[in-house]
Structures are given as C-alpha cells and as structure tokens.
Design goal:
Elements: H1 3-22, H2 29-39, E1 45-53, E2 64-67, E3 70-71, E4 75-82, E5 85-94, E6 99-105, E7 118-121, E8 130-134, H3 137-145, E9 155-161, E10 164-171, E11 174-186
Antiparallel strand pairs: 1-2, 1-11, 2-4, 3-4, 4-5, 5-6, 6-7, 8-9, 9-10, 10-11
Length: 200
C-alpha cells in the first residue's frame, strides 16, 4: 500500500469511528417508551413478590427487591436481590437493532459465575408496556455447555406499568413471574456483588 492510499484509508477509518461514537443508536417508539418508563424510576428500589412459579424454590420465600441502580441513554442496570443474595443484575440495553436483556451473575467476591451474561434480544417492536426477549445464540451455547438444556428455549418478558414492574421467564413446562410494587419506594440496598459504589 502506497503512502497516499494509506492516508486515505486512515482518514476513512477514523471518520467512521468518530461517526459511530457520535451517532445515536437507531431506536423505535415502542422500545424508547418502554426504556424511558423504566428509567423514570432510576435511583429507586422496590419490593416485590412471586406471582407465578410452577416449580417453587424456597430461596424466593425471602424478601425480593429490585433497584434501578444506574441508568443512561442506552443502558439500565437493575440488581435483583433475593434475601441477602446480591448476585443478580438485570441489564437492559439499546443495541441499535432493538433491546437486549442480560443477566449478570456474580459470586460474593465479585467474580463471575460460570453461567453469566445470558439473556435474549427483542425480535419485534413489542409494546410500550411489554417487551419479550427470546434466548440469544450466546446463551443457548452457554446453557448447552453447562448442562442446562432445558433453558435453551427460554423467553424473558418485562412489563412496565405506572404501578407495577414484572419480570417473567417462560419455556415449555416452566413459568416464573415476580411483580414489584412501584407505588412504594423503599430504601436503596447495598451495591450488588461485584459492582462498585456509585454516587446517589
């Protein structure tokens, strides 16, 4: 490659990189409305209860809390506390082709759980109040690798209404849903495992 071609290539590359940093992500009204409705509660925590669980676990008999811990224009971080267990954080992101939902699972020392960052991505417009996240390819491979074949057909759903936030997991033979009361904010809990404190 001669010097002139190299300079042209560098200019194009740098210009593209600058545009990718500055250009807003493509988003559609239903995704924006859904995202914004959740972000309105940023900085607040809410208590919830299991509404549906066809395979009950004693763990979920504990106090359940969600905390809208951190929000920006493209990402929401929502730790989900089950009693004293602060290992779970839901992460909703605008991706430019829709919304993704990831589950960040950590150990108490902050290290990653072997099964972490699994989740799904929207396939359609959804609704202002409801979005569905069918399992993505990364998660399918992760579940298969770790002996969790039952999870490769997971779909997660999140509902947001003025008085209620719901997290739901469904697959063949399995349904779990927890509802959080948005009318009564509670004291914010400690930081989730593996996350540094932020100014509130």
């Amino acid at each position: 490659m001669d010097i002139n071609k190299g300079l042209i290539f560098s200019f194009i590359f740098l210009s593209s990189a600058a545009l990718s940093r500055e250009a807003p992500l493509v988003s559609i009204p239903t995704h924006d409305a859904f995202f914004s409705s959740i972000a309105e509660h940023c900085g607040k925590a809410f208590e919830g209860k299991v509404a549906v669980d066809n395979q009950p676990s004693a763990a979920f008999d504990n106090k359940l809390v969600m905390f809208l811990r951190k929000c920006n224009q493209t990402e929401l971080q929502i730790p989900f506390y089950v009693g004293d267990n602060a290992s779970r954080t839901w992460i909703i992101k605008k991706t430019g082709s829709g919304l993704s939902l990831k589950h960040d699972h950590r150990h108490k020392d902050g290290s990653d759980d072997p099964v972490t960052m699994y989740g799904g991505h929207t396939l359609d417009a959804g609704y202002d109040q409801i979005q569905s996240f069918p399992v993505d390819q990364y998660s399918i491979e992760l579940f298969a690798q770790h002996g969790l074949p039952q999870s490769i057909t997971n779909t997660w759903q999140i509902y947001i209404y003025p008085d209620k936030f719901s997290y739901r997991l469904v697959r063949e033979g399995r349904e779990f849903r927890v509802d959080f009361d948005l009318t009564k904010a509670i004291s914010a809990p400690a930081e989730p495992w593996g996350y540094e404190a932020i100014n509130r």
